[in-house]
């Protein structure tokens, strides 16, 4: 019996795709570090109560509810610029956690960091798809997801190792390091050309129409 197979197109690792993979690695590495210390940082370092933590988590979801409006205002920017600025906002927000001393300031910077995260989440696969062909799109997204998963594991492993070797390191320092890695990811994405993800069709403008209900 003759076997027949389907030859899969090879993924071409262009400069832009490598930059995106590096940015994803830096971002998820930073998220692995900050996510690993978040609960202890809130309770042990800042002394938050359970209720305060719940309110904080709720406030972090507000940007997600407003995402469609926020995205509409950003459609005129190139895809890479939107992604880079989102990562920059996210990174600066996480870095500011190391300096915060009040609950109100913590809630403010948490919302700002969450805003950057919510803007970035749909842009990441969009950038990946724009750098792939129809035949390789699935594998490109899969490999970027694998890079992110590996980086998250490495980030948590680095956190565990440093905590074991130097237990006196302040928990806020991990936010500074993790946020700094996100800023590096932002710089990497901003180095991508504006042509990435660009289309010949003009982006529609957002129109606000007044409606009157009887």
Name some characteristics of this structure.
globular, mainly alpha, disordered N terminus, 214 residues, Growth Hormone, Chain: A, single chain
Describe the protein's architecture and organization.
The protein has 214 residues and is an all-alpha fold. It has a single domain, classed as MFS general substrate transporter like domains (Growth Hormone, Chain: A, Up-down Bundle). It is 69% helix and 0% strand. Helix 1 runs parallel beside helix 7, helix 5 packs antiparallel against helix 6 and helix 5 packs antiparallel against helix 8.
Shape: globular
CATH superfamily, by name, is MFS general substrate transporter like domains
Radius of gyration: 20 Å
- CATH class descriptor name: Mainly Alpha
Query: What is the mean pLDDT?
Result: 85
Remind me, CATH topology? Growth Hormone, Chain: A
Number of helical segments with 4 or more residues: 8
Supply the helix-strand structural class: mainly alpha
Q: How many structural units, i.e. domains?
A: 1
What is the beta-strand fraction?
A: under 5%
Unreliable spans: 1-6
Order of helices and strands: HHHHHHHH
Distance between the termini: 74 Å
Number of strands: 0
């Amino acid at each position: 019996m003759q076997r027949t197979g389907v030859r899969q197109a090879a993924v071409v690792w262009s400069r832009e795709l490598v930059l995106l993979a590096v940015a994803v690695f830096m971002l998820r590495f930073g998220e692995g570090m900050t996510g690993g210390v978040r609960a202890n940082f809130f309770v042990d370092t800042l002394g938050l109560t359970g209720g305060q933590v719940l309110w904080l988590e709720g406030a972090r979801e507000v940007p997600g509810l407003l995402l469609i409006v926020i995205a509409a205002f950003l459609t005129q920017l190139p895809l890479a610029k939107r992604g880079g600025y989102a990562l920059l906002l996210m990174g600066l927000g996480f870095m500011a956690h190391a300096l915060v001393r009040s609950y109100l300031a913590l809630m403010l910077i948490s919302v700002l960091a969450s805003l950057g995260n919510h803007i970035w989440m749909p842009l990441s696969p969009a950038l990946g798809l724009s750098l792939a062909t129809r035949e390789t799109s699935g594998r490109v997204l899969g490999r970027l997801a694998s890079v992110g998963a590996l980086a998250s594991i490495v980030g948590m492993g680095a956190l565990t190792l440093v905590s074991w070797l130097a237990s006196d390191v302040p928990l806020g320092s991990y936010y500074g390091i993790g946020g700094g890695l996100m800023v590096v990811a932002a710089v990497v994405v901003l180095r991508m050309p504006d042509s990435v993800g660009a289309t010949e069709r003009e982006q529609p403008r957002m129109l606000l129409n007044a409606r009157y209900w009887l």
